[in-house]
Amino acid sequence: MAAGIAVCAGVGAVTWALQSEPEPATTRVAWADVRLTAALPGRAEAAVHYRLYFGATLVSPPGAEQPSDDACALVTYDPNQARPGPVVSVTAEVGAAVTAGQELAKADTTAAVAELASAQQDLEQAQRRLDQDQALALQAASGPSPEARQDTQVAAGSAVGADQDRVTQINLRVTQARKTLADARITAPADGVIQAVDTALGSSPACRTPAFQLRSTALQVVADVPGSLLSRLAVGQHVVVALPQLDRSASTSVTSTPVKAVVSPQAVPSPYAAPGAQPAASKPVYPLAVTLDKPPAGMVPGMPAELTIVLAERRHVLAVPNSAVHHKADGDYVTLVSSVVKRCHDCSVRVSTGLVGDSLTEITDGVLLGDTIAVPGSAASTPTPTYPSSSASPPPSASPAPTEAPATPLPSPSLPPLPSAVPETTSRGADPQSP
């Protein structure tokens, strides 16, 4: 009896072990979109930075070494001409959103207005005098004798030349007075946000420090690309910018690839390192900037961001999970559980692969749409690959296949959905031929 109990206990243990063993997983070959992406941490920056003066504007790209704030070489006036007076209005403050052409500050123009009126009056008189002398010169050309005509023409020509010089000089006064009036106003060169205000009512316009600092409304995200990824970048690649702090994202594209390497400072040697040990040299990286002309609300410079760059993509191709493909010395293989045309069970089949994406591998030959293949792991541990639903029909050359499985929305919010079908993953215990 004791022996019988032991045998029964052993059989029960074996039965329990067999029942508790997880069943292998399977998946069907289906239409899907295969994507290979690269995720890079980045930071938001202003696309353009402006320093505004009375009479000058300095423009600097973000991340570039800022030159001196001294703009006096650009703000020049004739010492004999009027200059803008004290500041009489400041209409923008730090944090204000402004539009292109909006007036931000104005200086007193009383002297410039008077100078312009005086110059314009003098110009009218000089122009009248020039017209009169030119008429006299024409009359002198028809004098009674050649000698008289020559003497009169010399005198008339001398008067006309002096008149023309006078008109030119007064025209310069008019131009300078108009420039003074224009320089007395600071307007926004583009849509942006005021970052600093360094002028005040009653102060004199200065050229050594900017009156305003303005950043563009357009923002960009800068990320450091490792050298191993540089060759995969190309203009036009789709980029998704995720902002974890705002729980928002935006789409853009690569408009230019990095052209200059940046090496970060070397790390400080560990205090536990051997005496005289040198820190490991940092690897060069390549800054990549992508611009958002209309950034999400709340996005500001300095905010962390994540870039997801679509390096390569194949739409509506036959695909299987990456883990289902076995790489051997003579090629790639999958384990075929059942086929729509072949009589095969757990056969190792050689396949031709295309793009290997983040989670899926493109299959170009070796299996057919609807074939069931094994996936390492178990049905419980292997997640079902989900892709956006597809309204497109298979190519005419595709072999007949069971009805495609219902589609499930793409769970990741970082990439926009694209049309594809769902490779259905089931346990090995299910009927592989059931639709």
Which stretches are poorly predicted, pLDDT < 50 over at least 5 residues? 11-18, 379-422, 429-435
From the N-terminal CA to the C-terminal CA, the straight-line distance is 51 Å
Count of structural domains:
4
Strand content: 25-35%
Return the CATH topology of the largest domain: conserved putative lor/sdh protein from methanococcus maripaludis s2 fold
Report the C-alpha radius of gyration, rounded: 39 Å
- Examine the secondary-structure arrangement and name the CATH architecture of the largest domain: Beta Barrel
Helix count? 4
* Overall helicity: 10-25%
Write down the overall geometry.
elongated
Largest beta-sheet details: 13 strands, antiparallel
Q: Helix/strand/pairing class, anyone? A: alpha+beta
Q: Quick one: CATH class of the largest domain?
A: Mainly Beta
Order of helices and strands: HEEEEEEEHHEEEEHEEEEEEEEEE
Q: Give a count of the beta strands, DSSP E runs of length 2 or more.
A: 21
Average pLDDT figure: 79
Keywords: Coiled coil
Biased composition (Low complexity): 379-392
Protein name: RND family efflux transporter MFP subunit
GO molecular function, one term: efflux transmembrane transporter activity
